[in-house]
Amino acid sequence: MELKNMLTVVSRTGRHLQRYDKGCRQVVGCIPYRFKVANTKTTLVDEDSLEVLVISAQRKGKGMLFPKGGWETDESIFEAAKRETVEEAGVVGDIKNCLGQWNFENQNKEGFMFALLVKEQLEFWPEKDKRQRIWMSVAEARKECKQKWMKDALDKLVKWLSTNEAHLASSSPGQDRKSKSNL
């Protein structure tokens, strides 16, 4: 069954299914992205043709973030990343690439971030009343991202997209598995 068909009106809660590795809570998330203009040519991606989706933090003063959250024992890493993105940002799409692994400073968490090509933006999603979502340019997102890991992940997204041909943007899910095979 497709994720959006299973969508509930509330986010998952609790930590009883939470994954830990060597005492670190496992976190996964995505940088949702889209292209301003559909590119039908097989050319390299220009940073100006790209928009990323950021969401407001639930706590004041934390600024704008990329959707991320706990990876639970009853789901794959990809299912968790997509679920967190639907719950927090209200978008559905295809995971295209693993952007890397980060340790979140002072939080005893480590996490993986993925590039997610957005296929649909939902009108209703579990955290709609808790968060704002804003599409912005890469340059704007760099200014908004307060944490180093977020800037690093954004830079990796841009580098990956600019070094891969534009046909990756429309490839079907799972075609770019080689970059995720070690997860």
From TrEMBL:
Keywords: Hydrolase, Magnesium, Metal-binding. One of its GO terms (molecular function) is metal ion binding. InterPro entries: DDP-like_NUDIX (IPR047198), NUDIX_hydrolase-like_dom_sf (IPR015797), NUDIX_hydrolase_CS (IPR020084), NUDIX_hydrolase_dom (IPR000086). PROSITE patterns: NUDIX (PS51462), NUDIX_BOX (PS00893). Its cofactor is Mg(2+). SUPFAM superfamilies: Nudix (SSF55811). Residues 23-158 form the Nudix hydrolase domain. Pfam families: NUDIX (PF00293). Belongs to the Nudix hydrolase family. PANTHER family: DIPHOSPHOINOSITOL POLYPHOSPHATE PHOSPHOHYDROLASE (PTHR12629), OS02G0734300 PROTEIN (PTHR12629:SF42). This is Nudix hydrolase domain-containing protein. It comes from Cinchona calisaya.
